[in-house]
Predict the 3D structure of the following.
Amino acid sequence: MLRRFSNSRTFQDNLRLGIFTAIIAGMVNVASLVLFYSFTSNLTGHFAILAQEIADGKWFQMLVVLFWIILFFSGSFLSNNLIINSTKRNAFVSHSIPMILEILCFVFVGIYGQFFYTETLTQTEILVSVLLFSMGLQNGLTASISNFQVKTTHLTGLTTDLAIHLSMMTKKKYRMNVEMVQKTKLMAAIMGSYLLGGIFSGLIIHYVQFQVFYFISLAMLGVLTYDFAKTYVPFFVNKKKHETTLKENLERIQNTIKNKTKKSGVFSQSKQ
Amino acid sequence: MKRKLVISACIAVLTLSSFGYYVFSHASYPEKAIMGEWKEVSWVYDRNNVGEKVKQEIDTEERIDIANHLVIHEFENWTFRKDYSIKLHERTGKEHQAKWRLKDRGRILILLNDNGTSEVYSVESLKENELVLHFDTDVHARGIVKITLKKIN
């Protein structure tokens, strides 16, 4: 899911990545809405609020919203920076770092919320900041590695794109276009997954409260482990296989040389 | 090149942290502003009847009708305390204790009652001497009620 980059990714890679990260985004957004009364996976509303706060002259509230936006921005910036600075050899590690940081953010929110949160305004705003940063990381990661095919934290653009694609599907020539059909499927899958994640989070949040962030972290850790195994296990298996073959070949060559030397030795002795 | 990158990253983290610290050291402003004693001065529907230009006042009887599921309809004075407790009281001595919380940068006010129920109000405006709250009722077309409170202490 995370190994391949940009154009080397298949449709299946993007589909898996889109479904998984959309579920996470949906879960986080509903959890933050229930726990903090704030959205954390989309920024459009925050931009509107920022404008309103500026117009009302509420400077400190404006700064809070501005800080949230900057954090989301920083998350995406950091993700992409890690990806563009990675080499082919350490691609998996570089692609995993944003996800590991995201997991750390969720674990922090989970632990802080469960044991230290007293529902003050400052605490709420700090936890929302952490979640916005994590969503920025996720959006930056998915968009960067999928060559901007997958964006899962907000659905405004996606809904528009899906509507456009579906309207194009009414014409046969577009229905025959594999790339377009795949893109439509991908967008529909992201939308459905986001909704599913949100519903699931909404169903369990009243029972588990902040522990929902542990579930999310565990799921992400599971995906990372799966991807790690997919990346490195074949490498080690192949390495072993390669070494065995190399050893066998070497022995064969050595034996041939030995035999040749023996033969030429006998020949030279018989000549004498 | 690598050194330059590390220095830039450190500067970025430091700047962001300082900005965050500054912002959050002032973030509790709405919590400070809401503390004190407030008195209700009006209850009106946020939407007017056709042809009316003045907001329709909601009288005491109607308050009971539309807000009988909320504790606030019985009290006119609200005292927000520093320890996040709130006292809703009347001159007659009748009072109700609950906990208060502000969420979403002070745009949502939540009253947590001792019986585990909670009431959510939207803070429309919070000024030095005026607090305007909105809450949704079951009266569909005219759902939103606007409560205005003045600070008295």
